[in-house]
């Protein structure tokens, strides 16, 4: 059995693991690269897509799913296995990704025409996405699915995103049986709406994410601080701009604004207009309605006594470009918009309109990959370029890592310690920056005797 790391190795982007086992060739995830690694999306795959038999998808986030249409464009004809909620989410997310690919290519080609350079084509288009979606096969949680007589999988709830999964991969040979576990993105405990992550009993090999391997989250109760930012900013006459991942983080924010802030403070927010300016977030919120089997007990109880917890009177979802443009002329409002790392989508327009306003606030509620516009702002750069224009950063900058959908260092260690019979072979640390991986490696060595491996991209291991 061979395992090759084709993404998310000493970086937090482009998750992709290539496996050869029992005569089959397949992937766990195939995500887009972001930020400094974005050019890798255009490179040849370090395997032949035409030879792949299938893909197992841990969850719908684009850094895990975003290159799947490219696989089909380059010859892949196999099946995608995932949960039902993930299958529904990638319908909207991959179509949105194709739209971004096409739009950005059109913009690039206008510049290339002016310079009399060769034109380029989008990474993939809607036809490639539809071909991928035609080949999705969904599997329930905690159901041993037999891909063939030698390869079985079991998907457990990762607690990271609606439909996210930990993949237990069972490879059966007459001589030896192996269990390889991929955490995907392991969820933070007690995040709103969805259930907490599940645990595993044992593994021969473990591939674990390490996004926050050197950090601890603040408690979710810091939502009252979010309330203070909103009130203070509105009193100054500014806007609160929240870059947010359209799927997962936006829904969590709405839940917090509607449920976690105490009743007295919540009533004061009723006069503040809150906008979700993202067609993708709007569509994703409807998918959340359709998958209440993923909800935790707290959310289900609220459904029994109240309206859908992501609805409230002063909330408006904007879909059209015209409605989005009109937001640029508003003051004293909260605008939640994607993309979460500020590298594409409508959020760039809202940043451009507000980043030089010292009365406004920009609130980051998710991880910002190295090289992204969001990371540059969060790291304190005083001038940034948006749509080619150099702008002064005068708005107040805030960060709320407690809202993260990823387990922090203690969460990851606790999950590994909770593996009942331990890890017999190696633990591979992926999906993290070098500092996070190095720190998590030191921490894990305190709780397990398993060998710790920090693979570089394209490194291959025999299991």
From TrEMBL:
GO terms for molecular function: hydrolase activity; RNA endonuclease activity. Transmembrane segments: none annotated. Residues 13-245 form the Metallo-beta-lactamase domain. SUPFAM superfamilies: Metallo-hydrolase/oxidoreductase. It holds the Pfam family Lactamase_B. It comes from the Bacteria. Residues 250-377 form the Beta-Casp domain. Keywords: Hydrolase. Its EC number is 3.1.-.-. PANTHER family: CLEAVAGE AND POLYADENYLATION SPECIFICITY FACTOR FAMILY MEMBER, INTEGRATOR COMPLEX SUBUNIT 11. This is Ribonuclease. It comes from Clostridium cylindrosporum DSM 605. The lineage of its organism: Bacteria, Bacillati, Bacillota, Clostridia, Eubacteriales.
């Amino acid at each position: 059995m061979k395992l090759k790391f084709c993404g998310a190795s000493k970086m937090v982007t482009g998750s992709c693991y290539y496996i050869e086992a029992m005569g089959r060739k397949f992937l766990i995830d195939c995500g887009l690269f972001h930020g400094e690694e974005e050019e890798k999306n255009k490179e040849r795959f370090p395997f032949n897509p035409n030879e792949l038999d299938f893909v197992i998808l841990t969850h719908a986030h684009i850094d895990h799913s975003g290159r799947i249409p490219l696989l089909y464009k380059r010859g892949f004809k196999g099946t995608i296995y995932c949960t039902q909620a993930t299958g529904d989410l990638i319908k909207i997310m991959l179509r949105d990704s194709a739209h971004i690919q096409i739009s950005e290519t059109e913009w690039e080609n206008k510049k290339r025409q002016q310079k009399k350079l060769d034109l380029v084509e989008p990474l993939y288009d809607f036809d490639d996405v539809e071909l991928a979606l035609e080949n999705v096969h969904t599997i329930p949680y905690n159901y041993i699915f037999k891909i063939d007589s030698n390869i079985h999988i079991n998907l457990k709830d990762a607690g990271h995103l609606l439909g996210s999964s930990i993949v237990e991969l069972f490879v059966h040979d007459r001589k030896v049986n192996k269990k390889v576990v991929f955490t995907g993105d392991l969820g933070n405990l007690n995040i709103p709406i969805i259930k907490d992550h599940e645990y595993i009993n044992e593994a021969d090999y473990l591939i674990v994410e390490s996004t926050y391997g050197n950090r601890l989250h603040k408690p979710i109760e810091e939502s009252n601080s979010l309330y203070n930012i909103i009130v203070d900013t509105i009193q100054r006459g500014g806007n609160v701009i929240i870059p947010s991942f359209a799927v997962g983080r936006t829904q969590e924010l709405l839940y917090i604004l509607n449920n976690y802030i105490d009743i007295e403070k919540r009533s004061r927010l009723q006069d503040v207009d809150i906008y979700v300016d993202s067609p993708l977030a709007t569509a994703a919120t409807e998918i959340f309605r359709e998958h209440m089997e993923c909800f935790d007990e707290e959310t289900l109880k609220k459904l029994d006594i109240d309206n859908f917890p992501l609805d409230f009177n002063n909330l408006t979802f904007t879909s059209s470009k015209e409605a989005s443009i009109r937001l640029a002329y508003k003051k004293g409002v909260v605008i939640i918009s994607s993309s979460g790392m500020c590298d594409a989508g409508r959020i760039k327009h809202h940043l451009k309109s507000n980043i030089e306003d010292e009365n406004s606030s920009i609130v980051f509620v998710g991880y910002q990959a190295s090289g992204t516009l969001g990371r540059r702002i969060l790291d304190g750069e005083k001038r940034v370029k948006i749509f080619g224009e150099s702008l002064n950063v005068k708005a107040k900058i805030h960060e709320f890592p407690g809202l993260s959908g990823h387990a922090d260092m203690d969460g990851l260690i606790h999950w590994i310690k909770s593996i009942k019979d331990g890890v017999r072979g190696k633990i591979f640390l992926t999906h993290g920056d070098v500092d996070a991986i190095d720190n998590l490696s030191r921490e894990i060595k305190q709780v397990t005797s398993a060998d710790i491996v920090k693979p570089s991209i394209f490194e291959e291991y025999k299991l």
